[in-house]
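Morning!

This is the sequence you dropped in the shared folder:
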Amino acid sequence: MQKLTILVLLSFYFCGFSQKSTIKYNRPFVIFEGCDDAVDKEKCYTTKSSEFIFNQLSDSLKTKLIKKSKSDTITLSSRLYFDEKGYVLKDLSKLYSSVDSTTKDVNYLIKKFPQIKPVLDEFDRGVASNVTSFYGFKIDSSRTDLELIPDFEPTDVPFEFLGKLPVFEGCSEQLNDEDAFRCMNYKLMKYIQENFRGDLIASAAGLSPGVNSIFLFFKINTEGKIELNYVRAPDPMLEAEGIRLIAGMPDAKSPGMLNGKAVNIPFFLPIKFVVEGDNKSEKEKKKSKRRKRRKKS
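The structure's back. Tokens below.
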């Protein structure tokens, strides 16, 4: 039976708490075109992707954003999901605008996003991943054009982040948001670790050594019940396991709140697990077999 290492990370859309990864990567972060030799590839990604987004803004969209904006700074918040080959998963990725009623207008930018070099595990296999970014644009003094803000740090985030988080059994109602999130993360992480049938699935699906990702998208509704949204995985058996895990998740004892009212809250939970194996290349394995045959003869 194949040996697994499991890492579970819970994200409340753009913000979240996570463990420090113990998985080994040959390329731990995606690489945007032109960032291969950058020392800080994450910063280079942010710089290059912000320039790309800015250059893709149409004149009509700029005019609409400027006209509707109540501030001189416009923020686009994105969470992009990349597959094992570095292509954007368009149906999963999201782009939000800080300007009222323009989020749908900016989402065409996701379709234009170029292929990047994906995360690579220790076997140089591509790993599905996601990247959160915030892009800032300043309205010029004449209010006729936008200027890209380098090294932008947002002061506002989408409304999805606001309000009281759901509370799970064993977590106190009195915890602040950060501690409540940590407690919720712990409860769900424990559930996944105790119920994920990784060894069985890895053997049945014949998974190769390396990192595999299952993306779980679900929501906690206004009654605290967990509902399935979507599961994405590179293998149908992994998708089925993701659906089974969501179906068995413990419900929250109280729902998330916004302005004193219960609301549906979307969550994203990626399960990454390593199928451990021999790290030798195929060429090295063949050489080893030939040496053994020569010794026998």
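Headline: The chain has eight helices and 15 strands.

More detail when I'm at my desk.
O.
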